[in-house]
Amino acid sequence: MRRRKFITLLVGAAAARPLTARAQQPPGELPRVCSIHTSRNENSDAFFRGLSEAGYVDGQNVRIDARFHETALDRVDEVVRELVALKCSVIFASNPYAIQAATKATKTISIVGVDLESDPVASGLVKSVARPGGNFTGFFLDIPELGGKQIELLMEAVPGVSRLAVLWDATIGEVQFRATETAPRPAGVMLQSLPIRREQDINEAVRQAVREQAHGLVVLSSPLIYQHRSQIAAMALNARLPTISLFNTFPKVGGLMAYGPDFPSIYTRAAGYVARILAGASPGELPIQRPTKFELVINLKTARGLGLTIPETLLVRADQVIE
């Protein structure tokens, strides 16, 4: 039987700025922020910290109810319905699955979401980036061609590669993979597709890359991949596969490189949107936000373990080098 795990927490945030007038309301009348996350990690912590920095303190001027669904994707719809029944003032949905469930469950409760895989307009979530309309707004990466930049950087770190494998989540990553597949690259460089749908697929995907003699591994984004980034990094290192990921925490758990936005800052900014809605703003009037700054992170310890010497021209461009 597939393991099911769902964690419910009431999250207390440390006091930050002076409390708003809402702090004088009886506990039963406090506004309620409901949030749904894949797991407790640096991104969810950044969201809770962002609420605190905006002056919202659990139990004093707001109630914060959090859910962490881990791998139980089949229960996301059910849990969102539970949150809607709590009469939340705002729902924060931290991933595409939660966004889909929340926007399906309610057209009246304000929703703020973070989605790194989708186009918010093409998917029908909003009317436009500048004026979303309706009850939803959020933060989107929406740069599927970023995979091409990752290929470019990995080839610079590992000169002479002719075959790269691409690990991607087939449940939500089709657009991202196709953009990576069609990105310009030198003649003769082949891409091997490694689609996964669940945790159990990861090991076989990496083994397949080794069997087909890939020279490197490009790791695209999804909640599943983020949750198992340590496993992916360890397997790739053991198989002597150089890796690059969108997640800037990937090199911190043993991956070779990352190129992408600072994800905790996105979640902090999302908390700022939640605070603005609690103060009276309409989500339909808050524009969709995208990251504007991208960081290059390189793990030299992993490079040494792979027998690689990272070119100085790449090191000088890195925002962070892990020794």
CATH architecture heading of the largest domain? 3-Layer(aba) Sandwich
Strand count: 13
- What is the tally of helical segments? 11
Distance between the termini: 42 Å
How is the largest sheet built, in terms of strand order? 8-7-9-10-11-12-13
Biggest pleated sheet? 7 strands, mixed
Q: What is the approximate shape?
A: elongated
Query: What percent of the residues sit in helical stretches (DSSP H or I)?
Result: 25-40%
β-strand percent reads: 15-25%
What is the CATH class of the largest domain?
Alpha Beta
Q: What number of structural domains do the residues give?
A: 2
CATH fold-level name of the largest domain: Rossmann fold
Uncertain stretches:
1-27
What would you report as the Rg, rounded to the nearest angstrom? 21 Å
Query: Please, what is the average pLDDT?
Result: 89
Q: How are helices and strands ordered from N to C? A: EEHEHEHEEHEHEHEHHEEHEHHE
Polypeptide structure, described:
The chain is of the alpha/beta class and 323 residues long. It folds into two domains: 7-141 and 263-285, 3-Layer(aba) Sandwich (Rossmann fold); 146-260 and 294-322, Response regulator (Rossmann fold, 3-Layer(aba) Sandwich). 33% of the residues lie in helices and 20% in strands. It has eleven helices and 13 strands. It has a seven-stranded mixed sheet, sandwiched between helices. It has a six-stranded mixed sheet with strand order 1-3-2-4-5-6, with helices on both faces. Helix 1 (42-53) runs parallel beside helix 9 (263-278), helix 2 packs across helix 3 and helix 4 (146-157) crosses helix 5. The longest helix has 16 residues, at 263-278. The relative contact order is 0.14. Mean pLDDT is 89; it is low at 1-27.
